[in-house]
Amino acid sequence: MASPSPSPSTAVQDAVTTGPPEISITLSISPNTYHFSDPTPPKLSLAVASNADRPLTIFTFHRILNPHLALAQRRFVLTDLTDGLEVPQTNIKLQRPAFARMHGHPDEEYYLEILPGVSTIVSTAFARGDDDPPQPKAIVQRGVVLDENGNETTARRSKLAQGVDGLEAGHRYRLDVASGGFHNVWWRWGTKEENLMEPDSADRMLRQEQSEKATLVFTAIEGIEFSVED
């Protein structure tokens, strides 16, 4: 097909190529109704897409783009639609050394590659973890861990909700993204492979000044509703 003649739309196309990318995120929970009789928690998924015409890579630690950590750090707002009140959630404070930016390092999992024209799906158990069956609020607020037979142990746990763990059966909820979670997002043009360094590279550790100067634009993220039953 022949190349189009120059037109006013050319400037818009150039802006997509050279300007800051626009990132869209779509939330989903599957199944949309969770039953506490099911030991397997529902799955929270984020479909992440960019309007750019070339690949880019985002560092996701402390961001909702790493939903497993985000659930434990109150990066989401959970509202009980039955009474209209916000649900108190677990908030774990994590302290750790500088992050690596190199091939083969455990920190490699925190770099998310987004390709043009493709939605990248990131998912996690919508609960405290994959191996811990969610419990209703009446049990969670006691702050103790149950054994495989449902008996209390001496181990302690958070009394607050995380995903469906700690919610109430018969209630409907809404999950939204907390405000302020997209400040100073580290990102660079190129694939994940291109942005990770070799172990002997001078740039093998993550630094904010390595990020592109332009600020990523995140479009408004629509919240989702779900139900919890016995």
Notes on the protein architecture:
The protein is mainly beta and 230 residues long. It has four helices and 14 strands. The strands form four sheets. A five-stranded mixed beta sheet has the order 2-14-11-5-6, with no helix packed on it. A hairpin with a 5-residue loop joins strand 9 (144-146) and strand 10 (152-156). 23% of the residues are buried. Residues 1-16 have low confidence and may be disordered.
Question: What are the salient characteristics of this protein?
Answer:
230 residues; mainly beta; 4 helices
Mean pLDDT: 90
Distance between the termini: 59 Å
Spatial ordering of strands, largest sheet: 2-14-11-5-6
Output the helix-strand order: HEEEEHEEEEHEEEEHEE
Give the class from helix and strand content and strand pairing. Answer: mainly beta
Oligomer: single chain
Give the beta-strand count. Answer: 14
The percent range for strand residues is: 25-35%
Give the proportion of residues in helices: 10-25%
Low-confidence spans: pLDDT under 50, at least 5 residues? 1-16
